[in-house]
Write a structure and sequence with these properties.
Largest sheet: 8 strands, mixed
Order of helices and strands: EHEEHEHEEHHHEEEEEHHEHE
Distance between the termini: 16 Å
Number of strands: 13
Number of helices: 9
Length: 256
């Protein structure tokens, strides 16, 4: 089984997000939120996980935009234009906004995520606010162009990298398991926004299916070789708990 070097790259941030927990107390839950994408790199393959939002989306949603995801990848030596595999964990605005920066990639998505955001509930206010319709339309266009790879449940992207449907936060949310030199690491994306969500067994505030969100914690725990092998999707502590890529302190961390 090949092993991968694994990186988290920060491209945006937001202060004062709250609450972090479903039905939590907003007074003690508010805090910073970092926005990441991830790259798994081996001699044979590079797999990028998610591709962030655009500067325009950041401005409209009052996020602090630091760099494009492609610029962040370039800092760790990955050329977005040459990447062949991009896993989109789900279609929320901060995960699918820069598809044009990956002109040679196939986009790996769950059947259930595409079905949901092109289905009857996508326009409901409780769901509608988390996506940018143009992002979804862009994915539909890429599907007609033959560049979307659909998955139903569990699949191997390339040897050593697998995706697993968990749902919960989004109907078709998937997590990514990566074989590394230190064991199997799980990029939990929004199945686990913050370490506290899984460590305290308390779901995040934005929920599509609460029971699935609890089950997602169990799936992540089972896939990861240890709790230290779980990488949450938005926690600023990721950049504290893992060593920075030299010269990229506060921007990119080496996860494995």
């Amino acid at each position: 089984m090949p092993t991968y070097e694994l990186y988290a790259v920060k491209y945006a941030e937001r202060d004062g997000y709250g609450p972090r927990f479903y039905r939590g107390d907003p007074h003690d839950a508010a805090g910073a939120m970092d926005f990441f994408l991830w790259a798994a790199v081996s001699p044979a393959h590079t797999v990028v996980v998610d591709c962030g939002f655009t500067a325009e989306t950041a401005a409209r949603r009052e996020r602090v935009f630091l760099r494009t995801p492609a610029e962040g990848l370039r800092l760790i030596g990955v050329d977005a234009a040459e990447v062949r595999h991009v896993v989109l964990t789900h279609f929320h605005n901060d995960h699918v906004g820069n598809l044009a920066d990956f002109p040679r990639a196939a986009f790996v998505v769950q059947d259930r995520e595409m079905a949901f955001w092109t289905g009857r509930y996508a326009n409901k206010p409780a769901f509608r606010w988390v996506v940018e319709p143009e992002d979804v339309l862009d994915l539909v266009r890429h599907n007609f162009a033959g560049r979307v790879r659909f998955v139903d449940g569990v699949a191997e992207v390339v040897p050593g990298v697998t995706v697993h449907h968990v749902g919960g936060h989004a109907a078709g949310l998937q997590v990514v398991a990566v074989q590394t030199a230190r064991g199997r690491v799980v990029l939990a994306s929004d199945a686990v926004h913050y370490y506290a969500n899984i460590e305290e067994d308390r779901p995040f505030a934005v929920v599509s299916d609460l029971a699935q969100m609890y089950d997602a914690f169990e799936t992540v725990r089972a896939l990861a070789d240890s709790p230290d092998h779980v990488i949450p999707g938005h926690d600023p502590l990721v950049l504290d708990r893992y060593p920075a890529v030299p010269g990229l302190e506060g921007i990119a961390a080496r996860l494995a």
